[in-house]
Amino acid sequence: MCLILLVLEKIQHYISVYFKELVQFLVSTNFTKSVLTVIAVIIPIAIGVLTGYTEIGVAICFGAFWCSPSDVHGSQRHKVLGILFSGALVMVVSFIGGYLHYSPWLSLVILGLMSFAISFISAYGFRASLISFSGLLALILSFAHTPDKLEIYEYSLLVGLGSLWYLGLSLLWFKINPKGQTEEVLYETIGNTAKLLKKRGTLIDQQSNRKKLQESLFLLQSQLTEQHDILREILILSRKNSGISVYNGKRVLVLAQLIEMLETSGANPVNYIKMDDQFKLHPEFITHFQNLIFEMANQLQLISEIGNKPNQIPKHDGLTALFEDIRIKILELDKIKEVKAYEAFIMFQNLLEYQEKQFDKLKRIKWLLSDHDVASEEFIDKEILKRFLISQDYSPSILLRNLSFRSTIFRHSLRLAVTLMIGFILGNLFSFQNPYWILLTIILIMRPNYGLTKTRSKDRTIGTMIGGVIATVIVFLIQDVYVYAVLALISFVIALSMLQKNYKASAIYITLSIVFIYGILQPDVMTVIQYRILDTLLGAGLSYLGFLFLWPSWGFQEIRKDVTKSVEANRVYLSKIADYYIQKGRVPTSYRLARKNAFLETSNLSSAFQRMTQEPHSKQKNLNKIYELVELNHNFLSSLASLSIYIQHHTTTEASERFNTIITKIDENLSMVLQSLSKEATGDQKPNFDAVISFEKQLPKFESDQVNLSADDNGALKRNHQEEQLIWEQLRWLFSLSSNMMKLTLSLK
């Protein structure tokens, strides 16, 4: 009986979890956008069929569908401009594409030249790459449809009208649900911050698999940095109006707390080796600190799940009790008049204060997400906020700079153009039923990096085959065009909504929708399934082989640039921290900009390394050394964060000459790292490692054995000891990390 109840309880739990995920999926912007796209496609066709102007309906439908990829997360202004530019591009491409059917050889040349030119637009960044994809879609589908009754210029103008039709629907939906995008990205960011805290809490225990945890942390930090940038753009560039400005102001303040939490999560009073030593002596503190961090993570996770429901925000009581327990334990440690115990007391007290700062930020987030009013002077000035946005340079010089084989975008564009031309020749040479399916598969799969191209090739192939099998079963069981129409519509919506989240599942549903559409138009559906699978296999194979043999871009060729940018950003951040420690006062905007840039470039470095690990082993040159360099760089930023948080939230003593000397030496080490990475280091410039080791031995450190433990309890003295331990330990660690980075970069070939 107990076993049955246990099984029923598990089933109920799974149903509850999956139901919650289903609800989240149905209210997500991906799903609503896919529904919007289907509406934009279906209505013109339906009206065209009913009124006898089918070609006009199809042209408008194509225009709406082709420009929909530009409708992604970001400010409304950027969305509108993206859709308009996509509309202009697909209109021009449709006009040129209207003449492709006159001569196969002319079509081949135009396909190669235009696909290169359109793909090359991606040099202007992410949103430009989406506009480029719209143009490629229009180019490839020009082979699938040629207007019979309309003139080519009329057809292209109607395609442009279709893009305006989609833009109108998108703006209408924004009017209906102006906060939907912001809420989704914000609560996803809160949820990922919760995951980050959990991983950081797990890292405290030396028994954990730290290497694996660090790798997952690198990826999660990269994801969070991207989400912070998206939120900045949405909130800062949103239009000011009376109904939404207060809402945006509060969300900007929440974002500021989340950014602070990302920085604080990586802060440690000492490095992990010294922390492990103290936790070995006092293992009970591992559980205490983990419980504290996990509870904060759980509360953030709950906030991300409940969404905009202020009355369900968790209370502080549980966390307050955990903090009180750990304070009592640390005070008990202070009463032990022993050198080791006092050193542990200082370290645990500093670690506790970091967690108290996290708790303050969590409380602030809860308060901001509740129905409390916020004074207007608390809002951050919009002009200051705009300085934190990453602006894209759209000058023609960007294209000129990328017009060489050193450019990843240039090689990708050329590779894509040649692969499409090969696919076009094979499709026509062997008389495939729909040769454009091969070309469509290529533009959907081929990406500038190997890992993503390989993954999408595999997912596309598997998804298409699974979709083909499912479609075959359904076609055998059901021969009803109305059922096919309903299934095609549902499959198309699901396929579009899962395109970014799960490409394999999207490929399954897109195959189903295509098969059902053809099932309505022609009786021989099995032939359609057969050719669909064959075309996908050929397109996926060409994409994969094209990357391997046509001017491939490997990670080891670019990773030095990413490391250089990250080290440069950390160097600037170190300089700003040192300046602030010396001068005190208010934290300047330049300080926060340096911090943001350091986290951004470190995130970019993690992403670049992750791409490198997905490449063939023969192309993973210096992989272990690069990983060590990435890890050192992350640890360097973690140490900077530890320094930054402490000096911002504590009254510190005057900076000594020794402090300035050590900062200068660390900066010299980083300068040598940059010279090594740029391959400019000469024999005269190579460092004297004996001098480096000698200097490191002379670095000051907190000497707990010199503390007078029998003296009266003095809060100010303990505060000075906390500062002394944290500042000197972090400086020693920063010098050690920069020295190791210097040695490592000199050994790279």
UniProtKB/TrEMBL annotation:
It comes from the Bacteria. InterPro entries: Memb_transporter_dom (IPR049453), YccS_N (IPR032692). It is a multi-pass membrane protein. GO terms for cellular component: plasma membrane. The chain crosses the membrane at residues 35-68, 80-99, 152-174, 413-430, 464-497, 503-521, 533-554. Keywords: Cell membrane, Membrane, Transmembrane, Transmembrane helix. Residues 423-543 form the Integral membrane bound transporter domain. Belongs to the YccS/YhfK family. Residues 85-327 form the Integral membrane protein YccS N-terminal domain. This is Uncharacterized membrane protein YccC. PANTHER family: INNER MEMBRANE PROTEIN YCCS, P-HYDROXYBENZOIC ACID EFFLUX PUMP SUBUNIT-RELATED. It is found in: Cell membrane.
